[in-house]
Amino acid sequence: MSKKITLACAICSSRNYSTNKNVSTTSTRLEVKKYCKHCGEHTLHRETK
């Protein structure tokens, strides 16, 4: 079962991306390096509540 999640920049806290996550296999919060258009660089994006 997948759940739609939102990824927020760790530096400026802007919510830039949304994706799906398989809840039954992944129990921890997702952390991915993605490009932030507000910061202008690649930063760590974390799953929000």
Automatic annotation (TrEMBL):
Highest taxon of the lineage: Bacteria
Name of a matching Pfam family: Ribosomal_L33
InterPro entries: Ribosomal_bL33, Ribosomal_bL33_CS, Ribosomal_bL33_sf, Ribosomal_zn-bd
GO CC term, one of those recorded: ribosome
Alphabetical keyword list: Ribonucleoprotein, Ribosomal protein
Ranges in coiled-coil conformation: none
HAMAP family reported for this sequence: Ribosomal_bL33 (MF_00294)
Similarity annotation: Belongs to the bacterial ribosomal protein bL33 family.
Record-linked NCBIfam families: PRK00504.1, PRK00595.1, rpmG_bact
Protein name according to UniProt: Large ribosomal subunit protein bL33
Organism listed in the record: Oceanobacillus luteolus
Taxonomic lineage of the native organism: Bacteria, Bacillati, Bacillota, Bacilli, Bacillales
Annotated gene: rpmG
